[in-house]
Amino acid sequence: MPSGTSTAARTPFVLLVVLLLGGGLITLLLLNSALNQGSFELSELKKRTTELTDEEQALQHDVDDSAAPDALERRARELGMVPGGTPAFLDPDGKVRGVPSVAVSPKPSPRPTPPAATTPPATPPAGGAAATRTPAQQGAAGTASPTPAPPATPTATGPTTPPPTATAPTTSGR
Fold this sequence. Notes:
This protein is an all-alpha fold. It contains 3 helices and 2 strands. It has a two-stranded antiparallel ribbon with strand order 1-2. A hairpin with a 5-residue loop joins strand 1 and strand 2.
């Protein structure tokens, strides 16, 4: 039996099997790389979603705080609005029920003045010769007691708003 013919016949088959295995490995490598890339994108998108969810919750908290009744009342007073008087209602036949009243502007409350700036008293050093001096000796040494600072006078930092009048808009919305 000639051995050269059987080896020559096997060579294309072996080459075909090696090429198919190599192609399969390269295909698996490319597929694995694509899956890893998708996994990284997915983790980045999840991270971004978490950040946006936290931001949304913070913004919703701000909206809830702004919509609270006490915040709305404070903001309305800043805009010069006053609480509405007693309302009157109209029946379907045109009859007025109740006695309407005008909204009265409350007197503005005085603004608190800032506390006067004071300096803390100087404390003598503990022990030593300074603790045993008499007041006359301390005065001769030039250590007079500190004098209080004059009180700070408040100054206007911005435009002042006139007090609301009796014809200010009401907060009733009706």
